[in-house]
Amino acid sequence: MPAEVKQEQSPSNATSLAMMQEPQEVVEETVTIEEDPGTPTSHVSVVTSDDGTTRRTETKVTKTVKTVTTRTVRQVPLGPDGLPLPEGSSPLGSYTDSIDRRYMKNGSDRFIMPQATSTLTRSYNNSYNDSYGDTHESQYVRHYGLHDGYADLTDNYGSLSRGVNYRPPRYPYMPNSYRPENSYTLPIRKDDYGHVAQPQVPMGSSTVDLNRSQPERFQPEPYGLEDDRRSLGPEEEEPYELEPDYSTANRRTLPGANRGRTHREPLRDGPRVRGYPDDPIEAELIDERHPYIHGMYSAPLAQPERGSMASLDRMGGRRSPSIDSIRKDPRWRDPDLPEVIAMLGHPIDPVKSNAAAYLQHLCYENDKIKKDVRQLKGIPVLVGLLDHPKSEVHRKACGALRNISYGKDNDNKVAIKNCDGIPALIRLLRKTNDMEVRELITGTLWNLSSYEPLKMVIINHGLQTMTNEVIIPHSGWEHEPNEDSKPRDAEWTTVFKNTSGCLRNVSSDGAEARRRLRECEGLVDALLHALQSAVGKKDMDNKSVENCVCIMRNLSYQVHKEVPGAEKFQDPSTLQAPGSAGPQRKKKDDAGCFGGKKAKEEWFNQGRKNGENDKNYDTLDLPKRTEPSKGFELLYQPEVVRLYLSLLTESQNYNTLEAAAGALQNLSAGQWTWSNYIRATVRKEKGLPILVELLRSDSDKVVRAVAIALRNLSIDRRNKDLIGSYAMRDLVSNLPSGQQRPAKNLEEDTVVAILNTIHEIVTDSSENARSLIQAQAIEKLVAINRTSQSARETKAASHVLQTVWSYKELRNALTKDGWNKSHFQPTVTATPKSTKNGKPGYDDTTLPLMEKNQDGYSTIDQRDKDCKYKTGDSSVDLTEREPLKNDTNRKHYIRSNRPAVSLVDACDVKPQPVDSWV
Amino acid sequence: MSFVPGQPVIAVVERIEIKKLRHGDNLILGFSIGGGIDQDPGQNPFSEDKTDKGIYVTRISQGGPADEAGLKMGDKIMQVNGWDMTVVTHDEARKKLTKKKEDVVRLLVTRKTLEEAVKHSKGKYPRP
């Protein structure tokens, strides 16, 4: 399965974490404080969260620290992608409470984050802001909280009263949604007022202080249900009756995220509590001033943060007896999943959006929740919300859908499609100008596009819209460029990346999909423009470029057969040649059973004919065009060669390299006029050395794509001579020697591709065969032939050896080197091996080059299936051409060949480990 | 310091300040990083917990600024100038470290030996 937008998902998550951690900036400052006398080790801070006893020594508080804190806070606002936002646009920076802390907290709970979807973020803000006004100890604690949890809090709590008196600075920004509707209360399961609700303060006098603010709890609530009970913010966060399945604690186990998050989560609540007025009376006053505060407070259940907070609290609470007693208080709890889904249909919009945001949060990397949402029929409701006029609502719904659509569980994707989610997403894409919503939509579509059966649906509903709304505007391409103005550069936005990723996936859905994409107005033009802009700016390593090249590569596949009017360009010499279409098919059928010597000879003849023709092409000028080509014609114009060669020269991205080589491979395949031009153009543009150089790449798939491209290019006789002279050593050096693989340890498919390329080069050229011998290849070939565990390698090596032996003029030299005829004969075990492997013999060298070429693609590492897209194609194409072979078997083989997991997302999500010097 | 959900977490961090070395137009820290949320954590040779997608110091150039500041191979970078590094992509981490306008980076790092050292010097951790 093609890669999905893993990044898509992580943003929200990563963002939230990043945001939570922003205060680290502050922490940094506190670390400095830590170096003050009194700290045991100036550089080492120890944090324990085991219980209330912290070992950290208190640090002294200075005004400067406070200032620093403020400054840093404002500096660090992060956007949804975890990167800092420009000043002023940041939720953190602009946000502060203007009324009191509680108020602020409420506001921040819902509206501060641009991506309110991430609960962690928000909650972090809460604590952050709350503690903002507090004493330095609290900041200090926060710092440590990063690494740990509760123990530090005690310290802070001790200082609670001090913090209370401090008023945080007021900021102009007021969340626009201070409305009573924001609140929403879940019915309380038990009426138990006997307990005093307590914030999650582990222990100490601070708890007492906090309790004093209880009276607020009983404020009337704006629109709550009658039997609703309301409690104060802190109480809401108490982990009553957490549903274990939905608790974020489970999700916390996310790899990597653990540390950053968990460490500081417990802190969130501590400082927050401290933000409360110490004095109940004062609290009440405040409450009266802002009666709706309570409403907001009591809305916890609808808020996405709930889950995470609660779970955190639970973690912290476990350590403290007082918390335990609190936890028994049943009045507050998180909503369970059916309740959240029910809230999606709540008449009040903020409830809907909060429920959707909470769902997104719950679904993050939790396949079980996703499945539950599906089974509880939550997906149609979310899809329905996409058409909601309020941006807050459709945005959150979209965020939830994006997370739900991610993952291996294709049923979720199908469920979205079944309730017409794809047209709804496309509708919203047309309607909204909100960049964030567009990112979410296109991210969701990217996820959906990874499932084969949905590809055509996406094409049917969304191709032209995605092209018009995203690809063309972001590519910088203009339909009718203004002569005076400079051509615009492409913008590598997330929306563009997502959309191109989606199109990249759908472009692999067979001939019809390719036709639709090629004929989609402006698409090819825009993609080419974007790539040219990338080359111009030397910015070729990013994901968007990769996606674009992959689409181009896929659309270049089989152009010589599929584009309208292709028959006009068929090379007349091929049509006359005996080895054209008909015989090729026959050869293919033979393949696998026997060596197919006869077929091979036919192929030789064909090659020879081509070679002769190519001599003419070398002097042939490219066709003169009366008008500039556009649309799909651009795919195979010789001008693209330079573009691909630039990418091959400059890009560091293996996927891009592979796709660019694959595009040249596709374009140089086939017997039509344009492929002749392409082959000659690669040579004239000095592309052969570039390709040969890439044979030394560390990346298996790059080597493979390049090898196959060289093979197609050597259809051109002059190319064959050049490749034979200059590439042989690099080709041979990629071969394993005997049992020992070379350092690169290339995969079987790559080795087979190289062997087939060598075979093509030595075929019909004793000169090249001589180069092969001089490159010390015979020893390796014989070793592969005799000892390789792979039937396909054995067979391919055997074919090369047979070809070499067929040159009588070389036998003398071979014999001198100690070889004899038996070395060049197929090993007896070859046939059994191939059956054992169960792989159809389509890699037989006697197959016509073009078809084999596709096979080369189809056998490319399946982890990268989404990068290649060829797999599906070739299977389809082979079925068309080769009725005898069962398409599904083939697929089956491919699938079973490698771990299923890697089919999903290995390609993009797990690139080679990167190591950067700084 | 691997993390178990619901369990207390103990982390010992060291603060390291590295002054970048100016080399022509380039500012050099003298170490390399691996990891990040977009990387395969299983391939990180330094992490205890193979699901840890944090940023780790993979190499130190001898005598370079990082070396002199006491950074060690295998250190996990928690923060860079206050920015969290535990949940960032590889490239984000690299960018945070290589800001041209900053001559000094302050790292919070953690490593196993640190943790042990502290444990020994301080005796037991309080446990309920």
UniProtKB/TrEMBL annotation, chain A:
A matching Pfam family: Arm
Region (Disordered): 1-60, 75-96, 195-278, 311-331, 567-592, 825-850, 864-883
Biased composition annotated in UniProt, kind: Acidic residues: 25-37, 234-244
Annotated ARM repeat ranges: 377-414, 420-463, 686-723
UniProt GO cellular component terms: adherens junction; cytoplasm; nucleus; plasma membrane
Ranges in a coiled coil: none
Subcellular location: Cell junction, Adherens junction; Cytoplasm; Nucleus
Keywords: Cell adhesion, Cell junction, Cytoplasm, Nucleus, Repeat
Highest taxon of source: Eukaryota
GO aspect biological process, one term: cell-cell adhesion
Biased composition (Basic and acidic residues): 263-277
Comp. bias intervals (Low complexity): 75-94
Ranges of compositional bias, category Polar residues: 8-18, 39-51, 203-213, 825-837
Family according to the record: Belongs to the beta-catenin family.
UniProt cross-references to PANTHER family, sorted A to Z: PLAKOPHILLIN-RELATED, SPLICING REGULATOR ARVCF
Protein name: ARVCF delta catenin family member b isoform X11
Source taxonomy: Eukaryota, Metazoa, Chordata, Craniata, Vertebrata
UniProtKB/TrEMBL annotation, chain B:
Cellular localisation: Cell membrane; Cytoplasm; Nucleus
Record keyword Phosphoprotein present: yes
GO CC annotations, alphabetized: basolateral plasma membrane; cell junction; cytoplasm; nucleus
Annotated PDZ domain residues: 15-112
Single GO MF annotation: protein kinase binding
Protein topology in the membrane: Peripheral membrane protein
Primary residence: membrane
PROSITE patterns per the UniProt record, alphabetical: PDZ (PS50106)
Any one GO biological process: cell-cell adhesion
Superkingdom classification of source: Eukaryota
Name assigned to this protein: Tax1-binding protein 3
Organism (species): Parambassis ranga (Indian glassy fish)
Chain's gene name: tax1bp3
